[in-house]
Amino acid sequence: MKIGNIDIKNNLILAPMAGISDVSFRELCKYFGAGLTITEMVSVKGLYYNSKNTLKLLETSKSEVPCAVQLFGHEPKIFESVIKSGVLDKFDIIDINMGCPAPKIVKNKDGSYLLKDLKLAREIIETCVRATNKPITVKFRKGYYENDDILIEFAKMCESAGASCITVHPRTKEQGYSGKIDIFDIKKVKDAVSIPVIGNGDVVDKESFKNMLISNCDGVMIGRGAVGNPEIFSILQDKKVDMSKKDIAKLHISILKKYFEEDYIVKIFKRHAMKYVEAKIGAVEKRKKIALAKTLFEIEQILFSEN
């Protein structure tokens, strides 16, 4: 597929997940064949004020070609200033989050809050498009309240404002991640606009992937389905995976060590480790032990023990 003037190797995209999609996990997913990976959500205001912690989220690996960043915020002038500052120059694509349902994001008028203010959402997109020649993309949800459905209106707004591609997650903000998505919500968006449409939600295996393709979407974004299962990108391309879960977890740890100190690895890897043991006998007990582990050595002992 193509986003603006950027060629994407295939139509499988790793979702930008807060606390998950760090540089190490993105490198791992690229190893297994993801066509595009996107940074976890990055605060545009944090970049504006040169927050060290925020700037760390911009680290990328050599394998990330092309390279995409996801920004969140609600002030057009801040977006413009950051884009023009040069801090995002290494990225090929700039994505704007207009769908995150997390309370701490929404209360600041960011993420899915923008679903309630189409005028402001349009201004942000238009401002970003004017500020750069890089493709500007938008990720959004079905609506804010439980029974909202503003998909067509919001999608057409994004297109007319200059977005090069949109990612649709057909749940509302109030639904969070509950229930099942309706594939035909994505199809009706695809039928309504001429820019590429990426479908997002509930893809965890070949069956759910094939179901997503019923929508005629141009790309498929995989989030939670890749956690503890990064090889999904190979599986969905019918490529043989000659690695056990244990081998994949070991590879993940080795990549983490290239970028981070142990304190961070212990904190962030627990979420992944719990997923790596999900299908094992005694998984519940193993997850409890992982949650209490204080060192990487302890986590490795739990993960790689035969019992």
Q: How would you portray this structure in words?
A:
The protein has 307 residues and is an alpha/beta fold. It has 2 domains: 2-235, Aldolase class I (TIM Barrel, Alpha-Beta Barrel); 245-304, no CATH class. It is built from 14 helices and 11 strands. The strands form 2 sheets. Strands 4-3-11-10-9-8-7-6-5 form a 9-stranded parallel beta sheet. It has a two-stranded antiparallel ribbon with strand order 1-2. Helix 4 (76-85) links the parallel strand 6 (68-72) and strand 7 (93-98). Helix 1 (23-31) crosses helix 11 and helix 4 (76-85) packs parallel to helix 6 (118-131).
Tell me the structural class: alpha/beta
CATH homolog superfamily of the largest domain: Aldolase class I
CATH topology of the largest domain: TIM Barrel
- Give the spatial strand order of the biggest sheet: 4-3-11-10-9-8-7-6-5
Number of strands: 11
Q: For the CA atoms, what is the radius of gyration?
A: 19 Å
Helix content: 40-55%
The geometry reads as: globular
Main CATH class of the largest domain: Alpha Beta
Q: Beta fraction of the residues?
A: 5-15%
| Order of helix and strand elements from N to C terminus | EEEHEEHHEHEHHEHEHEHEHHHHH
Low-pLDDT ranges: none
N-to-C span: 44 Å
Let me know the largest β-sheet. Answer: 9 strands, parallel
Number of helices: 14
In the CATH hierarchy, the architecture of the largest domain is Alpha-Beta Barrel
Task: Set down the secondary structure blueprint.
Blueprint (H helix, E strand, L loop, with lengths): L1 E2 L2 E2 L4 E3 L8 H9 L4 E2 L4 E2 H5 L3 H5 L11 E5 L3 H10 L7 E6 L4 H4 L11 H14 L4 E8 L7 H11 L3 E8 L10 H10 L4 E4 L5 H8 L5 E4 L9 H4 L9 H15 L2 H15 L6 H10 L3 H9 L3
Parallel strand pairs: 3-4, 3-11, 5-6, 6-7, 7-8, 8-9, 9-10, 10-11
Antiparallel strand pairs: 1-2
